[in-house]
Amino acid sequence: MTAPTAHSVSPAPALAGSPELLRSVFRQHAAGVAVITAVDAGRPVGFTATSLNSVSADPPLLSFSIGTGSSSWPAIAGSEHVGVHILAEQQRELAGLFARSGADRFGAGTRWRPGPEGVPVLDGVLAWLVCRVVARVPAGEHRVVIAEAVAGHSTGDVRADGRPLLYHQGRFNALRD
C-alpha cells in the first residue's frame, strides 16, 4: 500500500490580501440579488444588495451590509424597520435602477406600496420581508445590519419565472439548468 502524495500540479501562488484581491475573488462568487428599502423623513429610499444572508431561523434573523458613504445609509442608520426584497431573474432593470447612484428609484416606473410598519414594499418580487433592525455592526467602511423578520410574503414559486436574479462577474445573471 502506498502513502497518499500531493498533487503534481502546483497551485497558483498566493497573493497578498488587498481590496483588489477581494473584489477579484468575489467576482467568482454568485450572489442573490435583493433590494433593501426604508423610509427617510417620509420618503422611500432603497438600494440593491448582494450581501443578504440568513443568520438564524429562531429568531428569524438576516443580515446585509451597506457602505457608510451610500446615499441610502442615513435612512438605514435611522430606521427601525427595513424591507428586504428577493428579485426574480427578469428584474435586472429593477436591480440596475436601485444600484444606480442618483436614480429616481421610486419614480413612475417602480411599482410599490407602503407595507407593514410603513416600509416600502416592491410589487412583483419573488419574496419580501419587513424586518426590525436589531444591530448595526461596524465593518470597515460598511455596516453589517442584522434584522429580525416581522412580516413578509413568498410566492413559493418553482416555475421558470420564479427563479432568482444572481450577481456574478460584475453582471446580473440568471440560473442555468
Automatic annotation (TrEMBL):
Gene3D superfamilies recorded? Electron Transport, Fmn-binding Protein, Chain A
Question: What Pfam families does the entry give?
Answer: Flavin_Reduct
Q: Which UniProt keywords apply?
A: Oxidoreductase
Domain Flavin reductase like: start-end pairs: 26-174
> Which residues constitute the signal peptide according to the record?
none
Keyword Lipid biosynthesis appears in the UniProt entry: no
Q: Which InterPro entries match?
A: Flavin_Rdtase-like_dom, NADH-dep_flavin_reductase, Split_barrel_FMN-bd
This chain's protein is named Flavin reductase family protein
